[in-house]
Amino acid sequence: MRVATTRRLRLPRGEGAGAWLSAGSVALSLLALLALLGLLAMRGLGHFWPSPVALVVLDDGRQLAGERVREVPLAHGEGLERLYRTGNRDLDGARWDWVRVSAIDAVSHPAELVVLERRRWGEAIGRLAAVEDDAGQRIEGEAAWAALEARLAELTSLRRARDTLRKEVILPRVGVFEVEGRLDPDFASANARLRELQAAMEGGRLILDTAEGETLVVPLEQLLSARRPNAMSPLDKLTAWGSGVWRFLSEGPRAANTAGGVWPAIFGTVLMVMLMSILVMPFGVLAAIYLNEVAHQGRMTRLVRIAVRNLAGVPSIVYGVFGLGVFVYGVGGRMDEWFFDETLPSPTFGTGGLLWASLTLALLTLPVVIVATEEGLARIPDQQREGALALGATRLEMLSRVVLPMAAPAMLTGMILAVARAAGEVAPLMLVGVAKLAPQVPVDADFPFLHLERKFMHLGYHIFDAAFHGGDVQAAMPLVYATALLLVLVILVLNLTAIFLRHHLSTRHGALTRR
């Protein structure tokens, strides 16, 4: 009877420690990445969860109502200090309040405390005293909250109808006011309807009693939302959280980028990356084919390869200066002189825009595409080329039908690296087209539909502007975290799309081209 035995695989001396170190490094990198994503998600997405509102009574008799933000120790071990977001900036010019924990007498969470989100002055926090309609009729008590919710639902419907009318009817007809010498009837009726909607949104006001004993009067037309966090159930809070996340993704920014959403920045980032990829891939692939398949492999070719690799290390701001001087002032200025002379001195293409930003980032990522594609071409065995030529194929047919399909995964690898770098670049975009606020995306129903001369918003620049140029850094920081998480997810989606396509091509053309 044969007894089965097992052999233990023994690694050569020293390789076992190296394998463990490699595995540990990979695990540490993954943990760091997960920790980063967790921090961004917790600080960013947690901002949209309705936090409880505390009513704080201090030892000197003063009261304040606000959402607790954080607690930090004082210098020299003198106790703790707590930060509350109190809102009501139009009353005292501040929306934050630092309070010594030792000075707090009592903290409660009354169910009647209301948090209002306004178009101007940010949040307002207090007790709902009354709601007045257009006729001056005053509604108090619990009926006031029901009337407020009904009016907010009506205002939301009216705003949606107004925005649709502006986008689909009025904006496409701007500049065409007359048809055959008469006022365009569609434009006139749309303007009349717009005035009706605006009039329907006006009127009515809300009276709010603050914790400090002051009275705040808020026009209902200025309200965006109202909630009572202390009286909300977990399901209500989850619904409010989902609504807040959706508004962040679908609306434009407001209040100097410290509130609102980032939809124009999402659209601008994705569109710029797509245009950059369309521009850089043909030139990068053709350059790699010439260097590896056509050019004589001599000293000059080696110098060109060294130059291409050195270009990959040039700081991005240098490319921005190059794009500003060559594309914006050079090519764009000439285009204005040739085709838009009647609009000068106001530039059309002689200023930063989507086209020049895409071209600048295409130059920035061109060395990455060339190097990745050339490495893929170099890995294809010469037998593939020789076999195709021996069967009677021309050199062009050999390149287009044999070599390029096998090198397609390497090309997509170059595109993945280019997308990852271009989507996060900010410095060159500040010179060639990015804007702090561009509420209109560069795509609309007007010919030529894609407006390459327009400025656009970018998620990376939005993070930079909100974090360092906003008037209220404390209010902007949660949105900075949320936008950073969104930028990482956008890059991840773009890269995964290219990775899946690369995997499909690798599987199709054999294991030799797998990466």
From TrEMBL:
<dbReference type="InterPro" id="IPR035906">
    <property type="entry name" value="MetI-like_sf"/>
</dbReference>
<comment type="similarity">
    <text>Belongs to the binding-protein-dependent transport system permease family. CysTW subfamily.</text>
</comment>
<feature type="transmembrane region" description="Helical">
    <location>
        <begin position="262"/>
        <end position="291"/>
    </location>
</feature>
<keyword id="KW-1003">Cell membrane</keyword>
<feature type="transmembrane region" description="Helical">
    <location>
        <begin position="311"/>
        <end position="332"/>
    </location>
</feature>
<protein>
    <recommendedName>
        <fullName>Phosphate transport system permease protein PstA</fullName>
    </recommendedName>
</protein>
<keyword id="KW-0472">Membrane</keyword>
<dbReference type="InterPro" id="IPR005672">
    <property type="entry name" value="Phosphate_PstA"/>
</dbReference>
<feature type="transmembrane region" description="Helical">
    <location>
        <begin position="479"/>
        <end position="501"/>
    </location>
</feature>
<feature type="transmembrane region" description="Helical">
    <location>
        <begin position="402"/>
        <end position="423"/>
    </location>
</feature>
<dbReference type="Pfam" id="PF00528">
    <property type="entry name" value="BPD_transp_1"/>
</dbReference>
<feature type="domain" description="ABC transmembrane type-1">
    <location>
        <begin position="266"/>
        <end position="498"/>
    </location>
</feature>
<keyword id="KW-1133">Transmembrane helix</keyword>
<keyword id="KW-0813">Transport</keyword>
<feature type="transmembrane region" description="Helical">
    <location>
        <begin position="20"/>
        <end position="42"/>
    </location>
</feature>
<feature type="transmembrane region" description="Helical">
    <location>
        <begin position="352"/>
        <end position="372"/>
    </location>
</feature>
<dbReference type="InterPro" id="IPR000515">
    <property type="entry name" value="MetI-like"/>
</dbReference>
<keyword id="KW-0812">Transmembrane</keyword>
